[in-house]
């Protein structure tokens, strides 16, 4: 006769109450959101990094229009190409507050605005990963604490305290802490990796804007 497995997710789910199930559903939702953000941001970041070498092609073009065209072909995420596009169109502010600025001040304002927009775009979603990575272990711990409390309450109500009756439910409750770590670890690793690549992209954008400022200022 096969030995009975006293430690299983199925047994924990059967013995759990509404709060235990709610914690499990929250962890599942956090995992789904985390992986959606990880995959979408990884694809977007890969396209941005793939377009970075096109900055050299831009400066190797015979004129500005050809450089913008070459950069636009490579920059599918339109992170880099908006800087020369907006720099080219910045003149002629007209009867506006921006038009009252000098040409150099208008250029600085436009380039700074585009860098800010690019920063917001490439950093979007990272806050979600950071939040999930920071909170998922505690959500799992909450499930563990509640599961242990629920198990001990059940054993106490039965009036019989035996090690097998306590070890099984307590061991199953510890599964929730493991689930919390399984959700948190990929989110933290992805956040650190994406954040590092984003810093590299922002450094390139800053250098590109400085070079464009020098070009348009002549």
UniProtKB/TrEMBL annotation:
Indicate whether Membrane appears among the record's keywords.
Answer: yes
Q: Name one GO cellular component term.
A: plasma membrane
Whether Membrane counts among this entry's keywords is yes
The MotA/TolQ/ExbB proton channel domain sits at: 101-202
Q: How does it sit in the membrane?
A: Multi-pass membrane protein
Q: Which UniProt keywords apply?
A: Cell inner membrane, Cell membrane, Membrane, Protein transport, Transmembrane, Transmembrane helix, Transport
Q: Do you know which Pfam families this protein is assigned to?
A: MotA_ExbB
Predominant subcellular localization, coarse grouping: membrane
Q: Which residues cross the membrane?
A: 22-40, 126-149, 173-194
Q: Domain of life, per the record?
A: Bacteria
Output one GO BP term. Answer: protein import
| Family annotation (InterPro entries) | ExbB/TolQ_transport, MotA_ExbB_proton_chnl
Its localization reads: Cell inner membrane; Membrane
Function, as annotated = Involved in the TonB-dependent energy-dependent transport of various receptor-bound substrates. Protects ExbD from proteolytic degradation and functionally stabilizes TonB.
- Annotated family: Belongs to the exbB/tolQ family.
Complexes and interactors:
The accessory proteins ExbB and ExbD seem to form a complex with TonB.
Concerning PANTHER family, the annotation shows:
BIOPOLYMER TRANSPORT PROTEIN EXBB, PROTEIN TOLQ
Q: What is the protein name stated in its UniProt record?
A: Biopolymer transport protein ExbB
User: From what organism does this protein derive?
Assistant: Massilia atriviolacea
């Amino acid at each position: 006769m096969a030995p009975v497995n006293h430690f299983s997710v199925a047994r924990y789910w059967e013995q759990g109450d509404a709060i235990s199930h709610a914690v499990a559903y929250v962890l599942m939702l956090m995992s789904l959101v985390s992986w959606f953000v990880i995959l979408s941001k990884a694809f977007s970041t890969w396209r941005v990094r793939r377009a970075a070498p096109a900055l050299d092609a831009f400066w190797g073009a015979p004129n500005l229009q050809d450089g913008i065209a070459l950069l636009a072909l490579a920059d599918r995420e339109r992170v880099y190409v908006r800087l020369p596009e907006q720099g080219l169109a910045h003149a002629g502010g007209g009867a506006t507050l921006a038009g009252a600025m000098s040409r150099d001040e208008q250029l600085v304002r436009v380039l700074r605005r585009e860098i800010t927009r690019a920063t917001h775009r490439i950093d979007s979603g990272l806050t979600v990963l950071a939040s999930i990575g920071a909170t998922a272990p505690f959500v799992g711990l909450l499930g563990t604490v509640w599961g242990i409390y629920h198990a001990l309450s059940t054993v106490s109500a039965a009036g019989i305290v035996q090690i097998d009756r306590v070890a099984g439910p307590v061991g199953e409750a510890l599964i929730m802490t493991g689930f919390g770590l399984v959700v948190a670890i990929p989110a933290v690793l992805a956040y650190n990796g994406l954040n590092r690549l984003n810093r590299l992209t922002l450094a390139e954008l800053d250098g590109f804007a400085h070079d464009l400022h020098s070009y348009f200022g002549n």
